[in-house]
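Table S2 (text version). Query chain:
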Amino acid sequence: MSWTKWIIVLLLSLVTTACGTVSMEEAMENNTRIQEESTNLLEVPANAEETPKEEIAAETDSISPEEEMAIAEELALTYIHDFLNNEDVKGKERFVEQHVIESRQSFFLSYTPFITEEELRIYHPKVIETQLFEYHGNSVALVFIQYSSSPKEESGTKEVIYLFENSKMVSGYLPSKTAAHSDLAFRVIREGFNKTSTPPKAVSKAKDFSGDEEIAKNFFRKFLNPKNDDEQLKYYEEHIEESMQYMYGTFPQIFINKLRKYNNLEVVESVTYRFADQSEGSLILFNSSGTEIVVVLKQSKFVMAYLESEQTHDSIVFQKLREKFQTPQPA
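Corresponding structure-token output:
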């Protein structure tokens, strides 16, 4: 596989994991044009039926929560139509300039030249529920949408959740059958909506977590801070969850740069977690010199480490996972 293809796949994956939401495998399957320097657009290629007729308000000062939720819902549908399914590059660029948060604009703009394949588009998107809350002084909205994968099916059951900050597009979350971190991110956020579909949950039962806790600690010791290449490779082969091996094997430096400083780990609490496919895993809460980190393992294989960050789409996932522990959060 070409280096260009891997870079694109990684970017697509990090949008949702983290955008948790698109897996590396799905990105490769969905992007047959990458060999010709092309790719699908973002978390989910899409199509909608109508473009909102009125200009969406860009300023959110002095508006009611109801108005802000309405703006987010309209933006979500506009994103599907005017960006994901739009073949007009200039039109997509206008959407990014007007409606995407500034810190993410360069990422979105990098995908404006590419066209979504017909069979991967979203049809008949319908807003099911919107949540509005304050996070670190910013107004955050999560818009839960159901859609169909066929133009002939008006009542679809596929799902996507879009994230907005101060009425600007940030990212999205999708379920995934092939990437544990993407599916987890989607489902822990999905649990917060009233219309549930048997989401995975933390399970209270007796379990010896010592083995999983050691595997989690060794990710920081032996993968991020290995004594030598052989030690890192051994951990990778024996303890990285299969769907995550592409990411960690090809781009370890991304995780090393982000996480290697957290090597003084103290276990605070561990809980059992049942994934959507009913496989069992563990959520392990660490404290590293005042920084809380939640590590996710699936069937005793390392999936991902989450912590508070400046990126809202990362922090939302961390907070949803953090809520599953009984230990109170530090003031």
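Notes on Table S2: Confidence is low (pLDDT under 50) at residues 1-60. Strands lie at 123-135, 138-148, 158-165, 168-173, 201-203, 266-274, 280-288, 291-298, 301-307.
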